[in-house]
Design goal:
Structural class: mainly alpha
Low-confidence stretches: none
Number of helices: 1
Shape: rod-shaped
Distance between the termini: 124 Å
Order of helices and strands: H
Length: 96
């Protein structure tokens, strides 16, 4: 058996060991790609539904926050008007 034959056998052995080390990663990537394809299909299916629901929630949140905040803002505005009016009246009295 010559040196060339041993060299060829060792190269084949190293290639075989490399394949054994790479095959799990190949399988992992294969299923990861299949999973991503399936995920894209699900997103295309459910994204419009989720978008419509989130728009509905945003609209209702805005509507109810306006209903709740409007009286509070109105009361604060009236209080500020009264405060400004009383300050103006008492400032005039001090100047007179």
């Amino acid at each position: 058996m010559g040196l060339a034959v041993l060299r060829d056998i060792s190269l084949i052995w190293l290639i075989f060991l490399t394949l054994i080390a790479i095959i799990p990663f190949g399988v992992l990537f294969f299923f990861a790609i299949k999973g991503m394809v399936r995920l894209r299909q699900l997103v295309k299916l459910y994204a419009p539904i989720a978008l419509s629901r989130t728009r509905l929630v945003a609209a209702l949140t805005e509507e109810y926050s306006q209903k709740i905040a409007r009286p509070i803002i109105g009361a604060k505005a009236k209080a500020a008007q009264v405060d400004g009016t009383t300050r103006a009246i008492f400032a005039r009295r001090k100047n007179e």
